[in-house]
Every structure is written in structure tokens, then in C-alpha cells.
């Protein structure tokens, strides 16, 4: 399938009789959003490792990344553990059995084998990919690996980008400027080579190798991802961003992100994901580990827009992600914000371990499922230190035939005196064929802590709908507006650039869900 | 699927101590129940549904000795005119019981009619329990259906003039009682059932309740104060159109209590309220597990559970509202709260919603915390001694659950029992 192939939904809309009184703009809008905007794929020559997972594949991945022996051993140990593990089945998601031997565990663009010297030498298809993704040209140059690109002038607000194309990081922008501040931002494969002492110390310290089935798999086969180290007292001068894209067919993407915020530092990190439209489902199992030392703060924002499958539930990404932040020092602070609109299946629980006294964890989430999507997502707040605080705001929106589950844990350990948790989970149902579920676990083991949990489930309010329609909005606009209002608390927690994109995504994801 | 070896062994070890009645109308249901137990296996510590409660003392072959406790208090519901049925360690006590005849209701003992081949209860015995096994297994209830030695078969056809009171006394320190009741409330009929007492050293009780269209059942239960008793109870209730079920349980002490309520709202406009207040001091583990299925339109369900815990007591709440596709206009409400009077006690909760219909209003809330310092300060500043002030605030905390009891005389009795506990344990 090429990038410009017509999506079946297009034809359907064209063929359908347009009702009287419906203007062309609406028809066009529906047509545009009936398709997944990032659903093209780039026809680039790829280099694959053979299908399937064996110790040799693990060794090959390690070799391709020019890793030292200790890393290879670490991966092999993870592989051995993975063989012992069983795939979890407790989440409220239902999908055909995954054949883990029918996947490519390593794929990379062939053109990356040697570094291009100027834009002219860069595979134009790769450049076109970044353009379509909306990454500025200067950053495209850097991502494409053009030497000296960093010295070219850049305008506007700076965001450093690390892009991962299938299994490999294709480039990180603004490295020099970050270096001046002492911030290390590079691909994890580079970090393993250049900063082994940091990687050795922190990798697997938050999400242990044998944490769960998917994390163990990731530990064995992760091929790339991002690495961030912010030294003590440094406020990272710009927002850091990673862009993940799955391109090749039948490739699993297993990225690994490691963020270390040393004492008193601050960093804001953005993550975005897209994938082409395909008939077969693709596997994605990432691990994100964040270490936050004393007085440091990390903001981690995700806009997850993997291909969700078509309107009949065909294809889409299986997204099994383990994300965890460890507030090791006193007064450490972490904030997870996620907008989950993509993926056929989402299995994701960004968690906070509040170990340091007075540390804080926050989790803001919007999960939108439409058509046949299934999402089982939430968070864990583990209060270990005194005076720790956590806040959970989760907004689930379910439409079509989708199933949307919030699953979370709030645990107050006996020594976590005077701690506080506030949890709010709201679900919105659009249509009578979808489902919204809430599965919170609450464990309180001391009496000086207060835990409050609230959850509601409702539908789009008829009065609000009537009001919007009466003001001349069409049904879909009205729903988008109401849903954006419903999710406002979370949208406000996002960095500016993401907030705008997320609002549009909310509207787009729900197209076709009413009427 | 074959059971894991340890689960298989635990189950077989327990089954070896019991014998299955061979004949009578209930025999097929009992054999089927035994097959269910073997298929599911008895609960084990690693089962998700037993995450917060250790089932071992409820499933082991032998009973842990439980001292008989004399509270010195007058019997429960003493001031109220009731039809009394007394079981001592699970054995019917004819002398202590009233005559079982009452207008508007027929009451029989399971042990008395077990030998006959035909009985109205045949359609219900084990049926509601079986329905309640999906989606979550409740093996102790199936064990009960298979091996119950006695129980009441209550057929309500009118509006009996007084409540039916089931008193469960405890006399033997090693008693292991299994009772199974079946209650059928015919269309338009109404009945109040009271239960009280510690029952036995270990008590497994299962009640199946079928409430027909427009009928109502009120249930108030006070579980006995014997500190060492252990109990696992199940109530399976099916509600017809415009029917009402209101249940309240008071639990005061007891080293292990697991109360499961499984409700199925199958008729439109049915109303189900389930409430509970529990107070525990020291070696106390109390688990309320509720599963409400909405399978009809315009139904209402309410769950109100309050727990006061001190000196290392543990309170558990697992509550679920399941709204099936098409169960529109459902109004589901659930609140679970705990008041921890000291730093050693704990509250573990899993309040769940599973919803497949869009035109619904469902909510749940769960909180846990210490006594409100501001409230305490206010009362102290008005000259109320600290202990009285704490008791007052504790009673106020429990009031929302007690308010679920409609009958004022019954509610008053529950409040006075709670006051007694607070005075003793303050």
C-alpha cells in the first residue's frame, strides 16, 4: 500500500448521498478525519534482522548498536527471564494471540548505515517523512544526520528532538546547546557507548528486568530510545522531545527511555507517536524509567497517536507500555500527562514511587477510544515517604464499540505518615455499544493519611448538546466542544504546543461517533 | 482446566471432611455444586478476588477453636415482636424456636423436607448461587450448596405481621456450621428478615433470595460479638420488576468475616440498597464484597459501607456495579469509607464500575482518614470531653449507613449497640 492509496472510508463518503442542508465543508471535514492522518508509510529500503526471537537475535541487536559485553549479557539475562514469564491476561482487553516469533525485532533504514554529509545526500523519502510529521526543516537536517546542521540558525521556540524510526534513533537535535548546559540528551544506544557509568547505575533500577512480561521482553530486545541526564541544579534550557514512528511492516518497536533528573534539576519531556495504516496489527512494548533526585522535577507528556486500526477494528498498534518514575529524593516531583487517542489495544500504567519525604506525583490522563479500540490504562501511586502527595485526574471517553478502562492503585504504606491522595476518574460514554470501566485499588495502612477517590460515569449531557446545536454548531462540533470541556483539567496540564494538538486530536478521534 | 496442585489438595482435603446427602429433591443440585467446587477449587491467597482477605482459615479441613463469648447484653431485637427460629452451632433448636406458622408465609426446614422428591424450592436451590458464579467464582457458596446440613425455606405469599428472626447461637468451641436458606417472595408480597448471632466457631452461610415483581424484602443482620468466630456468608438476590431489596449488616468484632452480596436486577424499576457498618478493635478482619448487576432499565442501586477500625483492625471493601448493555437509565451509587482511629489499622478497597450502557448515572466514592481534627476541636471547645467527642464524631460517621434502615425501631437498636461498643472500646 502506498502513501496515497485511497482509504475505503473516503469512497464511502463520496458515494453516500449528501443530505440537503449539509454544507460541503462538513462533508470535507468528515472525509478528512475519516482517515488516520498519519496513516502513510515511507517506502524506504530497510535492513531487517530475521523474524523471531532467539539469543542470536538479541546478540545481533546488541552488536548492531556496538554495545559493550555487559550490555549484551544484561539483555541475554532478560531474554532468559522472558522465556519463564507468562503474558498477563488481567486487563480488560481482548485481542488475538500474539505470535512473538512472527515479528521482526530489528529494522532500520538502510540509508542510515553511513552518515550523509548534506541534505542532498539524505534519502529524500526520509526527509519527506519528517516533513509530513511536521518537524521543522532545520531539525529535519539534524534528524537526517547532516553534519554541521546544528550551526544553522533556528527561529522560534526551541525543542530538542530525538526521533526513533522503527528500531533506531535517527538523530537528536540541539545536542550542542544542551551540552553547554551540561544536559545529556541522546539516543540510548549512544548513551550506552558514551556514558556507560550512568546507564549501568540507573538502567533497570526503576523497572527491574523481570518486572512484567512486556518490560522483560523490552529489556531483551530494545534497540533504541532516548537518554536524558540533567545535572544537579540545572534547569533544562528547552523542552526535550522524542518522536517515535513505526514504519516497517511486522516490526515490533521496543524503545527504552531513561531520564535522570539529578538534585534540584528540572526537565520537561514530550513524547509523540505515529505509525502507518496497515491491515495487520503491530506490536509496541516500551519501557520508560525516570529517576528523580532531591528537589528535582520532571514533567513527562505523551500524545499517543499510534494507528488505532480501521473502523472495523482491523489492524492497529498493540501498545504495551511500562512507565515508572521513582522520586528517590526528598521533595522530588513528577507529573505524567497523557493523551491517549491511538492504538488498537493500550495497556499502560505510568506510575509514581514516592519514596522521598514530601515528594509529589501527579497523573493526568485523557484516554479516548472509538470504533473497536480498547484501552486499559491508569496509574499507580505508591506512597512510601512522609508527607507525600499524589493527584490523579483521569478522563475516559468511549465511543463506537470501544472499551475504556481506568485501572489504578493508591497505596499508603504504614510509614507514609501525613500523606494525601486525591483521585478523580470520570468516564463519558457516547453511544450504547461501548463500555467504560473503573477498577481502582485503594490500600491505606496508616491513619494520618487521607485518601479520597471519586468516580463518575455519564453520557454527553442532553442540555449542553441542545444549547450548542441551538447556537448553530453541528453535532460533531458540539460533541468535540463538550468533550474538550470534559477533559479540560487534563488539557490544561499539557505544555502549550501539545495542548493545541491534543485538543484537535480529541475532536478528530471522535469523528464519526455521533449521528 | 486442571487446578494447580496446591489448590487441588486444599480443596480435596476440605471435601474429605464432608459428606454429600444422597437422596431427595436437592440431591441433583448438590451433586452439581460439588462438581463446581472441584472445578473452581477453594479460594487461595493468590486469587485476585481474595487479594485483601486470607481465605485459609475458611477453607482448611479443621476448625480453629473459638471461645464462646458471653456479652452479658440482652439478646438482639429483644424488644421487637418477631417469629424466632434458633440454630445452635448450625443445629435447629426446637425448644428455643417459635412455632413456624405465620400468616402470609410458609417456613420449612431444609433438613425436614430434604427427603421428599418435589418441593417449590427445587427451582431455586443452587440456581441463584450458580448464576452468581459468573464472572467471579465464589467456591465457598458452591461448597455450601453441596453440603448444607440445614436452613430455612421461606415462601412469602402475603405480608406477614411480624419479622422472621433467625438467631444463630454459638455453644461449641469447635463447631463448623453450614446453613443454606432459600427465600421466595411472591409478587406483591413483603417480608422483613432479621438475623443475629455468632453462629459457630466457623460459619458458612448461603442465602438465595428471589423477589418477584412488586415484592419487597427488608433484611437487617447483626453478626455476633464472639471475638474468635469466623464467618463466610453469601446472599444471592434476584430482583423482579418494581421490586425492592434493602439490606443492612452490623458487624461488631470477629477475627474473620467475609460477607458477599450478589445482586441481579432483572426487572425494570427495581431498587436495591445494600449497607453495612462495622466496628473492629484489634485482631479483626472484615470484608464486604458486593457485586450488583443491572440487567434492566430504570433500576436503582445503592451501596453504603462504613468501617471504624482501631488497634490493627483491617477493613476490606470490594464493590462492583456492572451495567449490562441495554440497562439504560441506571442509577448506581456506591460509597465506602473508613475511619482509622489509630496508625495500625488499615483499609483496603476496590470499588469497581463496569458499564456497557450510555444513558446511566453511576458514581462511586471511597475515602479513608483519621477523625476530623476540626470537628473534635469544635466539640472540645464547647466543653465536650475528648472521649465523648470522639465517640460522637464516630457515630456521626456511621450514621449514613445506619440511615439505610427504614424501620426506626431496628435502626435505634443498631445505634444503641454501636454506642455500647464505643463506650467499651473508647
Automatic annotation (TrEMBL), chain B:
- Where is each SUF system FeS cluster assembly SufBD core domain found? 176-397
Which Pfam families is this protein grouped with? SUFBD_core, SufBD_N
Q: Which InterPro entries match?
A: Fe-S_cluster_assembly_SufBD (IPR055346), SUF_FeS_clus_asmbl_SufBD_core (IPR000825), SUF_FeS_clus_asmbl_SufBD_sf (IPR037284), SUF_FeS_clus_asmbl_SufD (IPR011542), SufBD_N (IPR045595)
User: Which residues are the signal sequence here?
Assistant: none
Domain SUF system FeS cluster assembly SufBD N-terminal, by residue range, is 29-165
GO biological process terms held by the UniProt record: iron-sulfur cluster assembly
What family is reported? Answer: Belongs to the iron-sulfur cluster assembly SufBD family.
Name-wise, this protein is Fe-S cluster assembly protein SufD
Organism source for this protein? Marinibacterium profundimaris
Amino acid at each position: 500500500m502506498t502513501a496515497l492509496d485511497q482509504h475505503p472510508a473516503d469512497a464511502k463518503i463520496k458515494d453516500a448521498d449528501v443530505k440537503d442542508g449539509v454544507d460541503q465543508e462538513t462533508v470535507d471535514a468528515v472525509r478528512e478525519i475519516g482517515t488516520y492522518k498519519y496513516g502513510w508509510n515511507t517506502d524506504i529500503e530497510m535492513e531487517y534482522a530475521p523474524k523471531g526471537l532467539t539469543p542470536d537475535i538479541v546478540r545481533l541487536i546488541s552488536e548492531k548498536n556496538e554495545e559493550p559485553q555487559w550490555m549484551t549479557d544484561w539483555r541475554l539475562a532478560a531474554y532468559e527471564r522472558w522465556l519463564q514469564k507468562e503474558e498477563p491476561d488481567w486487563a480488560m482487553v481482548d485481542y488475538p494471540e500474539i505470535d512473538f516469533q512472527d515479528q521482526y525485532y530489528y529494522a532500520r533504514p538502510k540509508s542510515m548505515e553511513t552518515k550523509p554529509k548534506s541534505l542532498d545526500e539524505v534519502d529524500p523519502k526520509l526527509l519527506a517523512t519528517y516533513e509530513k510529521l511536521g518537524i521543522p526543516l532545520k531539525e529535519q537536517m539534524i534528524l537526517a544526520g547532516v553534519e554541521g546542521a546544528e550551526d544553522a540558525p533556528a527561529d522560534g521556540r526551541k525543542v530538542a528532538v530525538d526521533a526513533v524510526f522503527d528500531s533506531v534513533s535517527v538523530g537528536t537535535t540541539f545536542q550542542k546547546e544542551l551540552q553547554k548546559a551540561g544536559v545529556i540528551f541522546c539516543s540510548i544506544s549512544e548513551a550506552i557507548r558514551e556514558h556507560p557509568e550512568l546507564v549501568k547505575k540507573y538502567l533497570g533500577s526503576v523497572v527491574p528486568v523481570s518486572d512484567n512480561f512486556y518490560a522483560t521482553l523490552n529489556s531483551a530486545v530494545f534497540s533504541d530510545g532516548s537518554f536524558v541526564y540533567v545535572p544537579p541544579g540545572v534547569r533544562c534550557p528547552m523542552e526535550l522531545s522524542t518522536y517515535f514512528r513505526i514504519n516497517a511492516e511486522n516490526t515490533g518497536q521496543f524503545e527504552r527511555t531513561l531520564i535522570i533528573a539529578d538534585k534540584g534539576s528540572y526537565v520537561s519531556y514530550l513524547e509523540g507517536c505515529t505509525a502507518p495504516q496497515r491491515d495487520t496489527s503491530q506490536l509496541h512494548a516500551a519501557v520508560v524509567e525516570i529517576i528523580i533526585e532531591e528537589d528535582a522535577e520532571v514533567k513527562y507528556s505523551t500524545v499517543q497517536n499510534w494507528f488505532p486500526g480501521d473502523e472495523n477494528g482491523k489492524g492497529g498498534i498493540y501498545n504495551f507500555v511500562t512507565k515508572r518514575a521513582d522520586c528517590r529524593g526528598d521533595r522530588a516531583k513528577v507529573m505524567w500527562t497523557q493523551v491517549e487517542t491511538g492504538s488498537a489495544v493500550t495497556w499502560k500504567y505510568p506510575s509514581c514511587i514516592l519514596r522521598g519525604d514530601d515528594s509529589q506525583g501527579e497523573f493526568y490522563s485523557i484516554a479516548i477510544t472509538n470504533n473497536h479500540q480498547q484501552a486499559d490504562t491508569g496509574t499507580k501511586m505508591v506512597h512510601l515517604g512522609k508527607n507525600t502527595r499524589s493527584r490523579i485526574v483521569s478522563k475516559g471517553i468511549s465511543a463506537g464499540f470501544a472499551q475504556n478502562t481506568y485501572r489504578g492503585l493508591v497505596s499508603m504504606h504504614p510509614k507514609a505518615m501525613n500523606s494525601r491522595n486525591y483521585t478523580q476518574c470520570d468516564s463519558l460514554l457516547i453511544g450504547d455499544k461501548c463500555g467504560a470501566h473503573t477498577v481502582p485499588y485503594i490500600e491505606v495502612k496508616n491513619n494520618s493519611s487521607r485518601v479520597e477517590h471519586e468516580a463518575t460515569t455519564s453520557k454527553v449531557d442532553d442540555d449542553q448538546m441542545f444549547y450548542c446545536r441551538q447556537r448553530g454548531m453541528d453535532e460533531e462540533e458540539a460533541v468535540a466542544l463538550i468533550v474538550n470541556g470534559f477533559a479540560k483539567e487534563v488539557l490544561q496540564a499539557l505544555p502549550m504546543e501539545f495542548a493545541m494538538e491534543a485538543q484537535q486530536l480529541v475532536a478528530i478521534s471522535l469523528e464519526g461517533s455521533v449521528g | 482446566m486442571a487446578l494447580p496442585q496446591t489448590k487441588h489438595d486444599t480443596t480435596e482435603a476440605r471435601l474429605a471432611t464432608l459428606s454429600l446427602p444422597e437422596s431427595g429433591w436437592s440431591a441433583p443440585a448438590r451433586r452439581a455444586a460439588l462438581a463446581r467446587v472441584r472445578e473452581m477449587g477453594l479460594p487461595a491467597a493468590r486469587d485476585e478476588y481474595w487479594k485483601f482477605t486470607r481465605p485459609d482459615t475458611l477453607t482448611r479441613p479443621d476448625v480453629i477453636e473459638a471461645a464462646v463469648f458471653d456479652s452479658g447484653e440482652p439478646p438482639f431485637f429483644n424488644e421487637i415482636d418477631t417469629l424466632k427460629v434458633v440454630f445452635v452451632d448450625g443445629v435447629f433448636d426446637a425448644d428455643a424456636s417459635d412455632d413456624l406458622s405465620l400468616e402470609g408465609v410458609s417456613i420449612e426446614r431444609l433438613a425436614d423436607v430434604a427427603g421428599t422428591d418435589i418441593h417449590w424450592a427445587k427451582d431455586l436451590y443452587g440456581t441463584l448461587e450458580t448464576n452468581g458464579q459468573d464472572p467471579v467464582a465464589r467456591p465457598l457458596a458452591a461448597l455450601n450448596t453441596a453440603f448444607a446440613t440445614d436452613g430455612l425455606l421461606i415462601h412469602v405469599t402475603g405480608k406477614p405481621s411480624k419479622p422472621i428472626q433467625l438467631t444463630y447461637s454459638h455453644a461449641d468451641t469447635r463447631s463448623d456450621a453450614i446453613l443454606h436458606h432459600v427465600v421466595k417472595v411472591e409478587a406483591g408480597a413483603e417480608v422483613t428478615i432479621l438475623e443475629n448471632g455468632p453462629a459457630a466457631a466457623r460459619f458458612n452461610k448461603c442465602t438465595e433470595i428471589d423477589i418477584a415483581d412488586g415484592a419487597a424484602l427488608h433484611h437487617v443482620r447483626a453478626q455476633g460479638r464472639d471475638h474468635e468466630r469466623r464467618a463466610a456468608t453469601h446472599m444471592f438476590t434476584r430482583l423482579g420488576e418494581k421490586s425492592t431489596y434493602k439490606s443492612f449488616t452490623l458487624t461488631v468484632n470477629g477475627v474473620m468475616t467475609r460477607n458477599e452480596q450478589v445482586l441481579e436486577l432483572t426487572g425494570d424499576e427495581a431498587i436495591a440498597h445494600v449497607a453495612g457498618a462495622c466496628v473492629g478493635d484489634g485482631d479483626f478482619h472484615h470484608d464486604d464484597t458486593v457485586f450488583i448487576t443491572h440487567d434492566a432499565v430504570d433500576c436503582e442501586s445503592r451501596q453504603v459501607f462504613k468501617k471504624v477500625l482501631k488497634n490493627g483492625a483491617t477493613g476490606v471493601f470490594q464493590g462492583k456495579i456492572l451495567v449490562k448493555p441495554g440497562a439504560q437509565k441506571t442509577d448506581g451509587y456506591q460509597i465506602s469509607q473508613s475511619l482509622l482511629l489509630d496508625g495500625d489499622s488499615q483499609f483496603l478497597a476496590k470499588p469497581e464500575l463496569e458499564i456497557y450502557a450510555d444513558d446511566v448515572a453511576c458514581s462511586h466514592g471511597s475515602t479513608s482518614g483519621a477523625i476530623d481534627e476540626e470537628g473534635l476541636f469544635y466539640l472540645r471547645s464547647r466543653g465536650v470531653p475528648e472521649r465523648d467527642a470522639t465517640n460522637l464524631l464516630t457515630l456521626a460517621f456511621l450514621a449514613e449507613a445506619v440511615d439505610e434502615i427504614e424501620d426506626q425501631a431496628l435502626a435505634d437498636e443498631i445505634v444503641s449497640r454501636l454506642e455500647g461498643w464505643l463506650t467499651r472500646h473508647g
